[in-house]
Specification:
Blueprint: H1 29-38, E1 47-51, H2 57-64, E2 69-74, H3 77-89, E3 95-99, E4 109-115, H4 118-123, H5 125-130, E5 132-144, H6 148-157, E6 160-168, E7 171-178
Parallel strand pairs: 1-2, 1-4, 2-3, 4-5
Antiparallel strand pairs: 5-7, 6-7
Length: 179
């Protein structure tokens, strides 16, 4: 919810998001599906990267679900500034905001979140692969059902296996795992 809206009762994780000029209020189909699939994952004591963080809504949820370290990456100045404000509004202390165009090398994550678009995900598959270890869960969204086979083929060339597809309207969200 936005800070100016009344609190919602009986929710597991309240997240306050003021989007300003950034993408990601939680209401778009792709963000909704990412949050939905995140609910089924174990974030307790996990390391997470939120690539293309936007408002940091997914990074904030990852911390609320028990992640110990979250690297939230975006290339946009507005997104970084907005994410800092949103993380503070949600009392998050484990989110490291990083201004970059890709996942930085040298660190392996337990969970990778990327809700961007097909082209950005495809052009960053090498970085996603380099940041994964066997068993890393990779949750991807920001693309249409018609793009699913293209992306699944690309993922398989990087040793990433498909576990589940969630669809809302024409949008999809893929749960995948590093082999």
């Amino acid at each position: 919810r936005a800070a100016f809206h009344q609190p919602v009762q009986n929710v597991q994780h309240e997240i306050i998001i003021t989007p300003k000029m950034s993408f990601g209020t939680g209401h778009h189909a792709t963000t909704y599906m990412m949050i939905n699939q995140m609910q089924g994952l174990d974030f307790e004591n996990k390391t997470v990267v939120d690539f293309g963080t936007g408002t940091a809504v997914l990074a904030i949820l990852a911390e609320k679900m028990g992640a110990v370290t979250i690297d939230a990456i975006d290339y946009d100045d507005w997104s970084i500034e907005n994410s800092i404000e949103n993380a503070a509004a949600n009392s998050c202390t484990n989110i490291n905001l990083i201004k970059a165009e890709t996942i930085l090398p040298g660190k392996l994550y337990d969970i990778i979140l990327a809700n961007i678009n097909l082209n950005v995900i495809q052009s960053n598959l090498a970085a996603i692969r380099a940041s994964s270890k066997e068993g890393t869960l990779i949750l991807l969204s920001g693309f249409l059902k018609t793009d699913e086979m293209i992306l699944l083929k690309a993922l398989s060339t990087y040793g990433i296996s498909h576990k589940f597809t969630l669809q809302k309207d024409n949008w999809i969200c893929l749960l995948t795992e590093m082999n």
